[in-house]
Amino acid sequence: IQQIDKWEEDSIKKIKQTAEECRQILTEDKNKHFIKIEQKLSQFTEQLKQSRQEDEFNEINLDEFKTQLTKLAEELAQPSNIRIQQDSTSLINKFSVVVSSGIRQENKYNDTGLNQFKRKKSEELDRSPNNSNPQILTSYINKSSIISSSIIPNIPVDARWAQNGVTVAGGHGQGNATNQLDRPFGLFVDDDQTMVIADCYNHRIIQWKMGDNNGQVVVGGNGRGNRLDELNYPVDVLNDQETNSLIICDWGKRQVVRWSRRSGTTQGEILIDNIHCWGLAVDDQRYLYISDTDKDEVKRYQIGDKNGTLVAGGNGKGAGLDQLNEPRYIFLDQQQTVYVSDWNNHRVMKWNKGAKEGIVVAGGQGAGNALTQLWYPQKLFVDTWGTIYVADFMNLRVMRWHKGAKQGTVIVGGNGCGEGANQFKGPDGLSFDRHGNLYVVDNGNHRIQRFTIE
């Protein structure tokens, strides 16, 4: 009896730990763009400012600006992304559970006993006063996506968020101090609401605890470079809970690298090189998914494998259903369905496992600001209902597209370019915490904004 009680207690702890660990990925957030054309973009911005100050706007100038912007948009067609992978097989039935040591243990239990255990533990969590989202546990018992430490919160279909965001990281201007960010791109949010951010132009990964005024540099921060102790425009980051490490898309070095989170780590290791990576995701079998903006494809890699298996695109640059045009971020659902923010096609594509072509699930009507359109979509997230959330970069808004919908709705932003609490200067990455609060990487304002779910 004591052994059974101990097994029950340990199992509950493991399940809770898994549920919390799986709350950390989202996001991936992340935007790794404008790196190639930062100087041109800055010059373009200065031209606009100067013309505005001198009141020299005329039809010729506007046409010139439009031409420049079009060229910039065309040049923005060469980087990659991140998503979550899950398994419909019952986690406990497989009993491939991540224990605190990060080692998987195989245990044999029958379905009847395990189902009774699941029901009992779900009921206990439902009654727990500290459990704001009781459905979360059940969904994570039914899956084994514990590698990437990301959770999919149970967001109500008609959820609303506060329209004014609160700055929870950065927001003190562009810079490299520990209370500043410089063109942040991707992020994920831990179960304790700690943010881990790809601080792209500072060539570092910075960790920011909720409520702190300063972040802590956990990777890089040694300047831009190609050594193993340096980063070069990191654009995406995810947490590998099983190895207690961070996997980083090091865009400038054309590498995917892994850094241990253990204290004393001074350099990373190269997992994959010679890839123009942008987005990252990892599944429960420890396969890594990477978008390649040069080859317009998404591949799945086993750790140690340098070649990978094609899972989306790979048929040249284009707008066909079997093509992508600079895929950025990626998201994986429980069935290993790959969602891709198809940057230069202004759409989100869904590729079912093993499919030869994708399905347009958001946008695809050309660049524009109508509710049927996207304009350079960035980070995306798909909840348990199949609802898609996407950072609509050039439209300065975050959109929600319900499953099967022909148009989306604006959930935050869409109030013009600016520094206001309800404005963005390029929403890039996004993520949710376990309560359903929304985190948006406000790239041009060098800050992370948190929008509370109502």
UniProtKB/TrEMBL annotation:
The domain of life is: Eukaryota
Query: Per the record's keyword annotation, is Repeat included, yes or no?
Result: yes
Q: Which UniProt keywords apply?
A: Repeat
Question: Cross-referenced InterPro entries, in alphabetical order?
Answer: 6-blade_b-propeller_TolB-like, NHL_repeat, TRIM-NHL_E3_ligases
SUPFAM superfamilies listed in its UniProt record: YWTD domain
Region (Disordered) spans which residues? 110-134
On whether Repeat is a keyword of this UniProt record, the answer is yes
Question: Which Gene3D superfamilies does this one have?
Answer: TolB, C-terminal domain
List GO BP terms, alphabetically.
proteasome-mediated ubiquitin-dependent protein catabolic process; protein polyubiquitination
One GO MF annotation is: ubiquitin protein ligase activity
In which ranges do the NHL repeats occur? 417-454
PANTHER family documented for this protein: E3 UBIQUITIN-PROTEIN LIGASE NHLRC1-RELATED, PROTEIN LIN-41
Under which name does UniProt file this protein? Uncharacterized protein
